[in-house]
Amino acid sequence: MKRVYVNGEQILKGSVKVSGSKNASIAIIAASLLVKGEVVLDNVPRVNDVQEMLELVRSIGAKYDWIDINQLAIDCSELNSTTIDYKLTQRLHASILLLGPLVGRFGECAISLPGNDNLGPRPIDLHLKGFKLKGIHADISNGQIIVNGRTNQDSAIYLDFPSVGATENLILNSVLGNGVTVIQGAAKDPEIVNMASFLTSMGAKISGAGTDTIKIKGVPQLKPVRYSIMPDRMEAGTFMIMAAANRGDVIISGVVNKHLKPVTAKLREAGAEVDEVDGAVQVKSTQRLQSLIVKATPYPGFPTDLQPIISAALTTAANTSIISEKVYKNRFQYIGELRRLGAKIKVEGNTAVITGVDRLLGSTVTANDTRGAAALLAAGLMAFGKTEIINAELLDNGYENWVEKVSSINGSVNIVN
Ligand code: UD1
N or C: which end of the chain has fewer CB within 10 A? Predict the structure, then answer.
């Protein structure tokens, strides 16, 4: 395993271009299972989670080829199985997204319960409830989710929590067939809009993506297309927060400004300057950040994936910040590691109270999940002295070329083999 050292208190400056969205890529690779023929995807980030999703679709007969550094061809014409093995599902929670398209295309799928639940238990009840409301049989037996049936009837599904994965799975399941499916209480995330727009460009009939009511009218088949993945708003937000926390001056380009509104608003409230031009943001900060109240909630709220990173930034803010996590039950594991760097944080239930300290001091810390690793990287960049991040390779799951990108804005990261 490589050893990763961060030398902190360097002022971040320069510009960085964000990669394509990891989460949209994963959903769109799943959507490619619905079409016979070669789909070409541009702006796909080369991160481990995307590679895991590609291995999953390859395990059932899909062919893929990296045509260029971020251009991917996928051909799902000749799939040969609807059973997904535990060895693959345990590495990626999003493997659950194979259910919707496989059942939609073949009327059946058996998939081992997904793993990689570093954020605590991640139930899939909403996915199963949705299938059942569509008249499809869905059950869990011996660690496998078994789903059988076709979408041939009209159905209305109400999600009592706007789960991103359940919304995507139910759209993916409803695209082929005869019935009309209406999903109420749907998640509104931009990645869902991106996936729906990919499906629509292939001939699917979907309206309302990006609102809480999505309507899908089944069509007999789709035709393959070339499609470009949206920019990664989590990567963009990570760099924005790092710049603000380091009294930096960083231009983050290749973004969709409206996707970043929750981050932009909070950074401005904390005293950073955020200038928006079309497709880029410039984040400048010349003084200590002010404390914030941040609630991580479903889109368009502040993203849960950026909650660890803004918490790291607020460890040296003036006064006391309050962070509440409303999406996951267990997304504060990184806090014990921030305390090793001198952060003062109390956790009660799903709320963290952060009392700003004058400075963090470098130490050895261990990452537990991708965004937690990003929080430790942000904190290491803020801290006086050297920080060693154990398990820093978790960043490779979601951040393309992160060492090069952080170095290009004057962050000092050294990897020792
Ligand atoms: C997706 C993102 C992830 C992000 C999350 C929330 C991908 C690949 N991952 O994950 O980065 O953090 O959205 O924005 O796109 N839940 C249930 N029952 C269900 C489904 C979900 O209780 O059937 C709960 C989960 O345990 C979790 C919350 O709902 O606490 C959010 O889950 P969900 O929105 O489904 O997230 P994912 O799609 O897994």
Answer: C
